Amino acid sequence: MAACVRVASLVVRDYRNLASVALEVPPEGLVLVGDNGQGKTNLLEAVYVLQLLRSVRGARDADCVRFGEAGWYVEARGAFARARTVAVGYDVRRRRKLVRVDGAEVPRLADAAGHLPSVYLSPDDQRLAGGGPAERRRFLDVTLGLASRAYLASLAAYRHALAQRNAALRLARRPGDALEAAAVWEPMLARHGAALWRGRADWVAGQATAFAAHCAAIGERVPVTMALRTPGAAEGRTDAESLEAALARQRPHDVRRGLTQAGPHRDDLALALEGRDLRVVGSAGQQRTAAFALRLLEAATLRAACGAAPVLLLDDPFAELDDSRAARILALLDAGGLGQVLLAVPRAGDVPPTLSSLARRTIRDGAVT
Amino acid sequence: MSAIDDLAAELARLPGIGRKTAMRLTYHLLKQPAEQNRRLAVAIADLSERIQPCARCFNLAEGELCAVCRDPRRDASVVCVVEEPADIAAVERAGEYRGTYHVLGGRLAPIEGIGPEQLTAGALSRRVADGTIREVILATNPSLEGEATALYVQRQLADTGVRVTRIARGLPVGGDLEFADGVTIAQALQARREMA
Predict the structure, then answer these.
(1) Which one of A33, A155, A214, B25 has the lowest number of neighbouring Cβ atoms within 10 Å?
(2) What distance in Å separates the CA atoms of residue A209 and residue B173, rounded to the nearest whole number?
(3) Could A153 and B182 be called an inter-chain contact, meaning their C-beta atoms sit closer than 8 Å?
(4) Of A273, A269, A6, A288, nearest to A121 (Cα)?
């Protein structure tokens, strides 16, 4: 197995403003220099698609198609977790996504994710620390889902059963019928919900010390901590039996509200500065530091899961940092074995000294030279 | 040429048939003798007129009761509950089952607007209330919806005293352990049996 994931060549067609890009990538990586709006971010986003099979920015597949085209296509060759080529294509007319791994079509999209492990860092990451709980739940679910098939399967089953129970709460004409119709989804919600709680709690417990250490190493002088908050667990009990009992107990209330109250869909990965909510008391810089620390943990988790350092997609993440902070973050990434780096910056002068030896390409109007 | 377009448009509404295939089928039918086309048309028209749900089990039936319910050799004290009539054909192909059936007409899926009222679970409860049925085998699919549906039916029958069983899940016969997915293996391990 490769010590790190390496993209040797990349093909992108009709993805956002990228009409046709064919790019050879050196083993240590590449710097893409280009003004805003030229396609740097789109290229990194296209590489990330090969991991999660959808946009890192949450865009719909159809919205990523270059204007007037029939679909988009992204392909990478190299040394990956379990493959040598990964390709994802989207067809607008058939609204269908096709994934090929080593040339063979993957019939179930759930089995196709994670072939090209990567971690995406951008200035938007501040939202990860400063935004609502949904941002951090998504972070947990993406990180743990890519690291563990069992977690991913539980997540898909949980979301599906939750949507069915919520619909059942509203579908019945008589409240009594709604109680019966909602109840049948609860054993599944309890089993998969408890599995999600177990996965999240284990991860947070295992990474809490590293998180605090990363924040300090990046340069934060006040102690920063993280903890899993579970407002959807009755008295903090997160086992399947307790969740099933809580769902049953709150059923009449849920019928009135038309929404399921108990369960891990209300979790938050609470970040605190000396015990106070980082979202409220943290400065923009402190929130960005915490977000970087989370990305470092994400990289370490993927590395542990696939036995190789993931590709680092750096979308000008050090824009508002001084060189010394950027260098410390890179040093922390390096400590676990720095993977291949794709760095996008607006000006050549924005490349941190640590990465100055990387080859450079220019991107203009969707074309790489 | 509206007759050609009309038929192509109707054919294109069938599952698995696109516009191109519909045109190809239409031109093929044009070349056939008129008598053969008439037989096809009559067969299609008869389908809706002659086939209806069985009054007892909601299987497809010609007449009031389906072939299984009419058959005196079938054991009417055992009922196998399935989602769709096509599932009956699958169980029948195995040739092992001698009981009768009950077709629910789908599975619970509230996001698609399918609740208990859209299924024939109520009719099943009334059949069981008659007292001739000893065992109800729940053979809904092993999907989230199928499991929820099985649980719903089981709870509806809980007070009747009838024996309710669920078909086993596990490894397919002739399958390779190496290629089975994790969920299947986990369930097969859970449902393991003592070797006699």
Answers:
(1) B25
(2) 49
(3) yes
(4) A288
Residues A155, A140 contacting (CB under 8 angstroms): no
Domain ranges of chain A: 1-117+308-369
- Cα–Cα distance measured from residue A280 to residue A287, given in angstroms and rounded to the nearest whole number: 10
Instruction: Find tokens 């290629």 and name the residue.
Output: B179
Coil/strand/helix, residue A246: helix
Count of pairs with CB atoms under 8 A, one residue in A, one in B: 51
CB A121 within 8 A of CB A292: yes
In tens, the pLDDT along B98-137 reads: 999 999 999 999 999 999 999 999 999 999 998 899 999 9
* pLDDT at B175 (0 to 100): 75
Q: Pick from A181, A183, A188: which is nearest to B110 by CB? A: A181
Going along chain B from its start, the domains and CATH numbers come out as: 73-166 (3.40.1360.10)
Q: What angle (nearest 5°) sits at the alpha carbon of residue B119, between those of residues B116 and B124?
A: 100
Q: List residues in chain B touching A: CB distance below 8 A.
A: 108-111, 113, 115-117, 144-145, 147-149, 151-152, 155, 182-183
Q: Among all chains, which residue has been given the structure tokens 């899993």?
A: A228
- The three-class DSSP label of residue A81 is coil
Q: What is the mean pLDDT of each run of 10 residues along chain A (369 residues)?
A: 78 95 94 92 95 89 92 94 91 91 86 89 92 96 93 94 95 82 96 97 97 94 95 94 97 94 97 95 92 95 90 89 82 82 91 89 91
pTM for the whole thing? 0.87
**Structural domain A1-117+308-369, CATH architecture:** 3-Layer(aba) Sandwich (3.40)
Residue B149: list chain A partners with CB under 8 A.
184
A188–B145: do the CB atoms touch at under 8 Å?
Answer: no
**Nearest chain A CA: its distance from B44 CA (Å):** 30
Distance between CA atoms of A116 and A30, rounded to whole angstroms?
Answer: 17
